[in-house]
Amino acid sequence: MRDVAVVGFAQRQMEQFDGSPTCVELLVPLFQECYEQTGWTRQDVGFWCSGSSDYLAGRSFSFVQAVDAIGVIPPVNESHVEMDLAWAMYEAWLKIQTGEVDTALVYAFGKSSAGTLRRTLALQLEPYTMTPLWPDTVSLAGLQARIGLDAGLWDERAMAEVVQRSLTDAEKNEHAIRKGGSSVEALLERPMYADPLRKHDCAPVTDGAAAIVLAAGDRARDVRDRPAWLTGLSHHIDPMSLGTRDLTRSPSAARSAAALDLGGVEVAELHAPFSHQELILRRELGLDDDVRVNPSGGALAGNPMFSAGGIRVGEAATRIWSGEADKALAHATSGPALQQNLLCTLASSPEGATR
Amino acid sequence: MSRTLQAPVTVAFDYTRSTGPVLGRFLTGLRDGVVVAGRTSDGEIVVPPPEYDPVTHAQLDDFVEVAAEGSVVSWTWVPEPVKGQPLDRPFAFALVLLDGATRTLLHALDVPTPDAVSTGMRVRVRWAGERVGAITDIACFEPADGSAAGAGGAGGAGGTEPLAVPDPVTGVITPVSLDYVYAASPEESAFYRGLAEGRIVGQRCPSCGKVYVPPRAACPTDGTPTTDEVEVSHSGTVTTFCIVNVPFLGQRITPPYVSAYVLLDGADIAVLHLILDIPADQVRMGMRVKAVWKPREEWGTTIENISHFAPTGEPDADFDSYRHHL
C-alpha cells in the first residue's frame, strides 16, 4: 500500500447560499485556498473527484458545470460520485493506490436550501414501498431515536448532553452555522418538534462546499511537516429496509471499525446529523471515554449535504497538522438512519501514532 | 435589489418501474386487500417481503398472508407534513408489527395529536378507496378500537397459503415532483438583467481573455474567476446549425426551422438561438445574422426578449474567422 496523507482542506458553510446550485462561485475560492496551502497549481493535481446530487441542485448534470471551477484545458483526470465528499476521497485514495497518480483534489457541494431538504432526501429510499410515502429524514431519525429511548439505551438527557457539548464547541468554529451552548436543563425545557426530537437534536439545513487534498509519500512531505496520514479507511452499508434493521445499532459502522486500529485515537470527528446517532456511533466504535469527540461541534452545528462527512475528515486532519493530536478518527454517514458509514484513521506518521 | 435572480421551478417525472415477482406479489396483495409477507430462511416473516433472502441470497418465493392489524413498535410525530405524504395534516409515522409478522412495516398513522399515539398501541390498516397495486393502497394506519380488522379491506387475516392470484401487478408508477427556488449565479443574473435593458452582457476571463456569453463564474478553460463585464454586439455569425424536422411536446414553431449557434461579435462562445425570416434550407455556416428583439413592453429578465436571429444581408464570414469557435 502507498502512504497517502491529507495535506489540504477548505470549507464553506452557510444557512442559505443565494447563488447558483452549481456552486462554482463557492468552489473557486476553495480551490484557491487549497493551492495556497499546498503551493500547487491545478496542473499539480493528478486526479479530481466530486460529490454532489442533481436532486439537491434541481437541475441535471450540475457536477459538469462545477468542473468550470477547475479549468479543463489541458484536460483533467476527473470523476464524480453521487455521495458525500468522504466517498469521493475514498475513490481518490484508491486512484492513488493504483499508482496512476500521486495527488488528488476532491470536492463536494450542495445547496440544501434550494428545495425542501428532508423531503428531497426521500428519493434515496427504496422506491417501491418507501419513497411513495415520502418519509422525511427527520421522521426516520425520530423512529430510530424512539426505539432507543423506549429500550432504555439512551434518554433525553443523554441526547441533550450531546447537543450541549456540540453547540458549546461550535462557538470556536468560525464555520458553524448553529452555535452557542446553554445548559442541558435549558435544552430539555425546549418544546418537542418531531416528538421524540427537538429541533436542536436535528442538524440544521446547511448549504456549503468543501475540498480535501491528498498526496502520496514525498509529495505529502513536501507540502507539510506533519501530513495527516490515512492509516486506515473502511466503509460498509446496512440494508435499506428499516424493518429488517435493528435501528439502535449500526452494524456497518461496527464492521468498518473492526477493520481499523482505533487504539490511541485522541480525537474523533463523527458525522451524526441527529443527536442520538452520536450515541449509537460511540457504542459501535467502542471509543474510550477520554477520546475528544467533535471538537468542531460536529454536524449538529452545520451539516452541508455532500460535504459534511468529508468535513469531518478535514477537521480531524487539521488537528494532526497542528500537533494537537497524533492520531484521529473521522466518520462519515449517508442514507437514512446511519445506513452507510465510512471510517478513516489519520496519524502523524504513516505507520500510525505510536503512543 | 437582491444579489441574484431567483425563480420557482418544479421538476417532475413519473417513474415507471417493473415490480418483479416478489414486490409484485406484495403489491398484488395490497390491491386485493391483503398484506403479503415473505418467510426468509431464518424463519422471519418480513413485510414488505425482501426480493432476496438475506442469508442464502436466493430469490424469495415463500409468501404468507399476515393481518392488517398490529402494534406500534416505534413512532415519530410529523408536525409539518411535506407534499406527497399520506396525510396533509400533522400525523405520526410508525413502524408497525402486523400480527403474524416478525419485522415491522413503515407507514403513516392517522392520529390527531402526539398524545393519541404510544408505543405498543393497536392499529389497523385503513385501505385506500381505490386500490391500484401500490404501497399507497394502504391509505394509512388508524387506531384499532377492537372491531374487525382491515376496515374496508377485502381480505382475511392470518392465512398461511395465499391463493393463486389472477392478473398480478407487474408495474408501479411513482410520480415524483420536487419544488425548488432556482437561483442564477451573480454573472448569470447580470446577463438576464442586461437583457431586460436590451443589452447582451458577457464576462471576460482576465487570464486568457476569452469572452463568455452567457457569462460564467469561472473560465472553464483555466478556472480563473471572471471579473470583467463586457457588452457584446447584437450581430454575429452562424457557426453551426441544425434543421429541426421532428415535432415534440411543447414545440412553438412549425417545423422545419433552424436552431443555430450564433457567435456574437466580441464573444468567444456561441449562443444557441433560432434563425428565422429565411427558409430553413438557405441557412448556412458563416451566415451573418442579427438579434430581432420583441417589443420592449414584453421584455423581462429572459433570453426570450430576443425573438430570434435574422439574416443581416452582409457577405458570409470567412471560415477562418470562426473555425476556433466551433
Describe the structure.
By secondary structure, chain A is of the alpha/beta class. Chain A folds into two domains: about 5-115 and about 205-225, Peroxisomal Thiolase, Chain A, domain 1 (3-Layer(aba) Sandwich); about 125-205 and about 230-345, 3-Layer(aba) Sandwich (Peroxisomal Thiolase, Chain A, domain 1). In chain A, about 35% of the residues lie in helices and about 20% in strands. Chain A is built from twelve helices and eleven strands. In chain A, strands 1, 2, 3, 4, 5, 6, 7, 8, 9, 10 and 11 form an eleven-stranded mixed beta sheet that branches. In chain A, helix 4 (about 85-95) packs across helix 12 (about 310-320). Chain A is globular and about 55 Å long. The two termini of chain A are about 25 Å apart. In chain A, about 65% of the residues are buried. The mean pLDDT of chain A is about 95. With about 325 residues, chain B is mostly beta strands. Chain B folds into two domains: about 5-175, no CATH class; about 185-325, no CATH class. Chain B contains two helices and 18 strands. Chain B has helices at about 20-30, 185-195, and strands at about 5-20, 35-40, 45, 65, 70-80, 90-100, 105-110, 120-125, 140-145, 170-185, 200-205, 210, 230, 235-245, 255-265, 270-275, 290-295, 305-310. In chain B, the strands form five sheets. A five-stranded antiparallel beta sheet of chain B has the order 7-6-5-8-9, with no helix packed on it. Chain B is elongated. Chain B starts with 5 loop residues before the first strand and ends in a 15-residue tail after the last strand. In chain B, about 40% of the residues are buried. Mean pLDDT of chain B is about 95; it is low at about 150-160. At the A-B interface, helix 1, helix 5 and helix 6 of A face strand 1, helix 1, strand 5, strand 6 and strand 7 of B.
